[in-house]
Amino acid sequence: MKSSFSERVKIERERAGLSQTRLARMCDLSAPMISCLELGKSAGSEKVLVSVARALGVRPEWLRSGSGKRESDSSDDLAAFPRAAPQPFPERLRQLRKDAGLSQRQLANFVGVSTTAVSSWETGSREFPAGNNLVRLAEAIGLDPVEVMKVDGKSATARDEVQLLAAFRVLPKKQQLIAIKLVEDLKQNA
Question: Which H or E element spans position 145?
């Protein structure tokens, strides 16, 4: 079954790891406008269509009709339709928290950490939240941990992988090397 314009906008926004607010800012639009596009309440003007398509890195004609190429193949087309810039984790976390309408203090209380910890995650001066903190953080902002951990437009494929990755990233380099060796050993014995 062919998807509708509104479904394509939502799917591509989520694929890019963007909130409606973030996409709106990238397109110089309002968040309610993006919501209207995704709900099918508006098809937007040609200018809106081109702006959204460029921010999402897809061809405007594909976004409008669902036909033709989704992404362009040639370097000229890629320059005309640049892919949305990946969002680093600190920036993504800050945006997700704001989109959820939470202050740093509220998020810290929900997760069970200090406000300083949340601030450090958002500035990048502290590594990703680990294990249960990541799961509670995701619950606080209403997303699956996999969605929270999307970095550079990519995400892990399972909740266990997200927890493992979060725990791994907070280890000192020496312990990371030990963890890698342990996983390699486990893989050989499986």
Answer: helix 145-148
Two domains, one topology: 5-80 and 89-189: yes
> Alpha-carbon distance 47 to 59, whole Å?
13
Interatomic CA distance for residues 148 and 134, integer angstroms:
8
Residue 84 CA to residue 166 CA, distance in Å, equals: 25
How far apart (Å, rounded) are the C-alpha atoms in residues 175 and 18?
33
**Which superfamily, per CATH, for 5-80?**
lambda repressor-like DNA-binding domains (1.10.260.40)
Token match 């951990």: residue? 149
Q: Where are the domains of the chain?
A: 5-80, 89-189
| The CATH homologous superfamily of the domain defined by 89-189 | lambda repressor-like DNA-binding domains (1.10.260.40)
Whole-number Cα distances in Å, 126 to 40, 56, 83, 116 = 40, 29, 28, 10
* Residues 137 and 148: beta-carbon distance below 8 Å: yes
Q: What is the pTM of this model?
A: 0.43
pLDDT at 118: 93
Tens digit of each residue's pLDDT (9 = 90 or more) over 112-149: 999 999 999 899 888 777 777 877 887 887 766 666 66
Q: Which two tokens stand for residue 42?
A: 């508006």
Contact 66, 3 (CB under 8 A): yes
**Cα(39)–Cα(13) distance, rounded to whole angstroms?**
13
